[in-house]
Every structure is written in C-alpha cells, then in structure tokens.
Q: What sequence folds into this?
C-alpha cells in the first residue's frame, strides 16, 4: 500500500470560503486504486508521500461543449466517429471525465443524425477516454431577441409535438435541454421533459424575475451560460440571475474565459451563487486547434486567444478547456477550492440531483489516474492541475 498525506478534498462552498480545510491521509493499493481516506489528526506522527495541502478531486464534467478538433456536434456523420473518439481522448488529457455534448439549434434531420452518432460512440468507451453523457440540446425553443449565434431559421415555437419530432426514440440519450421558459407553450414542454427525467435549463431567454421564478417552480433547474443571452442584474429588474441565486437550488453555468463575463462579475456571481455555480467551457469546433479562421456550418468563426466570434462580432463560444476556466476563476476570486468544486463536483449534481456529493464518497475506489491533483500557487495567484497519477 502507498500512503499519501496532507491531502485536501474539495468541500461544498459556503458564503466566504474562510474556514480552514481539513487534511486527509489516503491509502492507494498496488493497482492504483484509492482504498481509504482518513482525516489527519496527528500530522507529525504520520509518514507518507506529502502532498502539502494539494487537493484531490474527481475529473471535470463539462455540461456545455459544442465540439472540437474541427467537429461541430450538430453536424456529426457516421464517418466522423474516429475523430470524435480522438476528441474524447483529448478531453481526458485535458482533465475532463465526462461531457454533455451540446447540440445547438439546427434542423431536425441533422439533430437526429447527431444523436444517432453520439449513441454509437458511447459503445466505444474505454479507460482514459472521456465519457459521453446524454446530449445537451441548446434550442430550438429560444427567444429570437436573445438567440445570439443561433440561426433564426431553425428556432421553433415550444410545442410537445415539435419536441417529439426531434427526440422521439432518443429520449434516453438526452440529459439537458435549454429553452426560454417565457415563450408560449414552454410550460408543457418543460413538464414533458421533466417526466422523461431530462434536466431543463433557462437560456437564450428574455424572462423576467417573475417568469424565471415560475419556471423554477415548474422544474427548470439551471441557467445556461449565466449573464450571456439573458437579462443582466439590475436593481429594479433583477431578472433570472438574481432569482436563481435567491432560490439556492438552481445551478448557474458560467463561461469563465474573462470575455463572455467580466472577471469582476464572475467573482460576484461566485459569491452570490456559492455551490450553485457550474463552470462550463462552451467550447466550439476549433477546440484543440490553433487560433484563426474556422468554419461553423455556413458561417466563419474568428478565434483569437481562445475566444470565438462570428464575423459580425457576436460572441459564439471559446476554444479553452473547461479546467482553464476553473483556474482563471480561482485567480480572479482567490477561492481555489470553490473553483475546483464548480468544475468537478457541482456539474455532477445538475444531472444527478440525488447524488451523494461527499468528496470522499466520490473518490473511494477510483484509480488515481482518473482523479485530479490541484495546487494553488499563492505567489502567482494561479491554480494548477494535473492527473493524480
């Protein structure tokens, strides 16, 4: 057995993050599996490999990623399967254990084709490869005025019949749907999605605080890319953001590149949302490729320093890894443990609400190679990560 001492485990964030962290001792067997975690009571009397307060966590879970290595998930064809598997291998190397592949607003035929390819890809899972969770359908039931980079011609009025036309036969292949709950007919769609066990998020929406509150009561449990494509915080019109924070039960996805949301507002959101904050990448097809011009359906994407825009300047996404977002958030807010939680633990709760999110429970029995080690560089205000083995 190998013993590791002075490990920290990510805890559910509170309002300040000020209380001291408990340190743990871990036993790892000869196969690299974590067999025991014990709180350290007498540090001086314990021998072992000293991690000096580094955190041990599960790998990241990205609930909003649109593609990579030149693949856009809504355009997937059977011939793309080898490159899709290559992308999943890259995501593992980038510290991500699982993704909800995001299918932005598109036609019915390509959507169903993409769902079929993703279903086939799940059968090719193997160790050291990122897992494919159910898909995230971002659209088509979105507010036209808040559609952002989504093509207007494929937006659709919320109707259960329109939902069935898209997902019939794939109900178990979908984990998350983003919609604008204020649209007429959205209530029936939300009800049907919840009956199917699919998580529903508010996004690309012009909802007021009152409309958002009604949606949360109806079963909507997440905001898609908070601040973006929705009303902002205002002292007389608090909007969905304030209502989500007030609810204490609605997750808030955050693109933490520093462009989609200013670092000051990202830190404010982290303080307001606490354990409700979820770091997402919103990575697009050029993820894993160099900056420059790239194709996105019939449009051109301009990528500069990891941020993607359409040629009219509209923000479209990023090419930065999810864990880079967690590191940036930690640097801005000086709360590394809360940022680790937001990328690794909080996303699991969104799609599995009844999960036991005790960190030790999540880690025991796992191979170290499937876990992450995090170190906070106080001098540089930088959170670094690596695979734990």
A:
């Amino acid at each position: 057995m190998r013993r590791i001492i002075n490990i920290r485990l990510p805890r559910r964030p509170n309002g300040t993050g000020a209380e001291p962290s408990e340190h743990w001792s871990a036993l790892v067997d000869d196969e690299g599996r974590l067999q025991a975690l014990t709180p350290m009571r007498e540090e001086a009397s314990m021998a072992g490999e000293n991690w000096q307060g580094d955190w041990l966590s599960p790998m990241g879970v990205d609930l909003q990623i649109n593609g990579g290595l030149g693949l856009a998930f809504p355009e997937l064809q059977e011939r793309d399967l080898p490159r899709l598997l290559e992308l999943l291998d890259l995501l593992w190397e980038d510290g991500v254990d699982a993704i909800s592949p995001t299918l932005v607003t598109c036609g019915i035929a390509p959507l169903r084709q993409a769902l079929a390819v993703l279903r086939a890809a799940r059968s090719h899972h193997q160790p050291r490869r990122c897992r494919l969770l159910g898909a995230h359908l971002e659209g088509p039931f979105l507010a036209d005025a808040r559609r952002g980079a989504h093509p207007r011609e494929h937006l659709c009025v919320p109707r259960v019949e329109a939902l069935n036309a898209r997902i019939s036969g794939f109900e178990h292949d979908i984990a998350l749907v983003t919609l604008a709950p204020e649209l007429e007919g959205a209530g029936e769609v939300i009800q049907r999605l919840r009956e199917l066990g699919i998580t529903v998020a508010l996004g690309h929406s012009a909802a007021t605080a009152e409309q958002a509150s009604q949606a949360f009561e109806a079963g909507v449990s997440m905001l898609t890319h908070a601040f973006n494509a929705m009303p902002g915080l205002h002292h007389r019109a608090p909007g969905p953001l304030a209502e989500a924070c007030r609810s204490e039960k609605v997750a808030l996805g955050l693109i933490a590149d520093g462009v989609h949301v200013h670092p000051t507002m990202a830190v404010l959101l982290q303080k307001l949302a606490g354990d409700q904050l979820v770091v997402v990448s919103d990575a697009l097809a050029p993820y894993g490729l160099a900056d420059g011009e790239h194709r996105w359906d019939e449009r051109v994407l301009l990528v500069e320093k990891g941020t993607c825009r359409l040629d009219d300047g509209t923000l479209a996404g990023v090419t930065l890894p999810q864990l880079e977002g967690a590191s940036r958030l930690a640097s801005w807010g000086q709360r590394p443990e809360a940022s680790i939680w937001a990328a690794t633990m909080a996303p699991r709760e969104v799609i599995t609400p009844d999960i036991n999110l005790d960190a030790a429970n999540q880690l025991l029995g796992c191979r170290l190679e499937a876990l992450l080690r995090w170190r906070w560089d106080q001098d540089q205000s930088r959170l670094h990560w690596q695979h734990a083995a």
